[in-house]
């Protein structure tokens, strides 16, 4: 049965979900408050690195990210073919580099559980590390090499998704302002501040850090909050062959010849300005990790608001109290990475099919108590 | 009521670990809700050349916390001592939590190396808080070596298994003159209450708060639990009896 789906938010999550729902034969309209990809999506470094991003164990976030990584090559190929736009997908593999002997110990335990979880991972050190990544700083003790990890160029990924959506027949409306849904009062339409009303069978809320604006109308806690990420880029610098991760941030070379260094995390509400301090934070470590940056100034810097959540897991699922609403938000540091699997899950929920993995850990209604 | 470690007066009896929080905002909210004054973190994770620009520490500015850097990742005394010196040289703190892992799977502390490192670091003038197993004899030796507080584990780090040997923890709390802070393994508020009822002076918590569904709410629960457990200890519990005692006795009423 074909449905009309309203997708709120034209970031990578909303656009990917829209494209997949369209492929499954649904009528889809994307409603965007500003510009598609204008927030975290377009600002992201495009890292597809669930293993480097993982903490101490294969938790629910890890499982979702890993599954999404496995969907990525096919998804990217489809998006590129349909849009005719290259997204700069490169499977360079990652190196999580440590600069303390005490960290080498943890690389080994991480390698072990990653391998058990089906990831390719190897600890490299000494000459081998020097040969794999000759430009690394002298202090590098060892690294965990994950050859499956990759990256895309986010601004192009957003463009390609938009174009693929439009070509497939998804309607995209931008510059609508803050969109309101009043389903709790029996009005199932989504309204813009200008008074325009949109009607659909189901609503997918993919508004990133702004999803919390629907708390009142949904009558539930949507504990998603913005964390500012600041990024800078260099040009004309010898670039690393791999995605280079450290405890302080990462470096990645883009096909356009730039070297991207990210990303600081600030608590700054909805402020998207770049600060001197935020960029200085990146500069305080990146020269030690990558000495070619010595004496270089970033030619460009920018910031975006990542949608963080209260327990670190995204909010993905259909609401029980408002079954016509599906949430797909709170992807924090890994929205680009999780876009293929989120699109698939959302389309499965729309089609009332059971998704590829259990959604309990991501259920938007899992937060029972929010204050004492 | 104030208590002291290394001559420093403290109010809060929760030490909070700063790892594993879902976001810096959630971390800050949890720190505030816990009331913690002492914050611990792994030195190896910190950018020691610019600690105030560090990925974790940058969020803690403007408050008067006591930093308790730890030597996590060290597998012998020599490494732990080296890490401790790095931390002090960066100007972060002269407090050090000695944390030396005997093996990667359990991350249990290596008793011999922990004692060695404690002796050496005390001589170098550090305020040393060793993370140790729940062995009372070892705890005494650490105290004799000059530890400012002793931190026996409840159960392995991050497991949330609670206090596996309350008998030993109670003995340690009873016998030591320096403060005892139960470190590692606390899973929920009940475990924090139990640690305090056993006579601990404080608890160190990280995973149980950082990985809770609502870390700020759990931090507050832990704060209340620590207060409740300490009050309960001081109030003096009733002896356990096998059979019921009527709560409205015959005889003279009040």
Automatic annotation (TrEMBL), chain A:
EC number(s) stated in the UniProt entry for this protein: 1.4.3.19
Write out the catalysed reaction: glycine + O2 + H2O = glyoxylate + H2O2 + NH4(+)
The record places domain FAD dependent oxidoreductase at 5-349
Output a single Gene Ontology CC term carried by this record. Answer: cytoplasm
What Gene3D superfamilies does the annotation carry?
A: D-Amino Acid Oxidase, subunit A, domain 2, FAD/NAD(P)-binding domain
The protein's UniProt keywords, in alphabetical order, are:
Oxidoreductase, Thiamine biosynthesis
Gene Ontology terms, MF aspect: flavin adenine dinucleotide binding; glycine oxidase activity
Q: Name one Pfam family in it.
A: DAO
- Which pathway does it take part in? Cofactor biosynthesis; thiamine diphosphate biosynthesis
Q: Which InterPro entries match?
A: FAD-dep_OxRdtase, FAD/NAD-bd_sf, Gly_oxidase_ThiO
According to its UniProt entry, one GO biological process term is: thiamine diphosphate biosynthetic process
- Which principal EC class is assigned to this enzyme? oxidoreductase
**PANTHER family given for it?**
GLYCINE OXIDASE, SARCOSINE DEHYDROGENASE-RELATED
Q: What is this protein's name? A: glycine oxidase
Source species of the chain? Marinithermofilum abyssi
UniProtKB/TrEMBL annotation, chain B:
Keywords tagged on the record: Cytoplasm, Schiff base, Thiamine biosynthesis, Transferase
Protein name according to UniProt: Thiazole synthase
Q: Looking at the keywords, is Cytoplasm present?
A: yes
Please give the family membership noted in the entry: Belongs to the ThiG family.
Classification lineage: Bacteria, Bacillati, Bacillota, Bacilli, Bacillales
Named in its record, the pathway it takes part in is: Cofactor biosynthesis; thiamine diphosphate biosynthesis
HAMAP family, alphabetically?
Answer: ThiG (MF_00443)
The source's superkingdom equals Bacteria
Cite the Gene3D superfamilies for this sequence. Answer: Aldolase class I
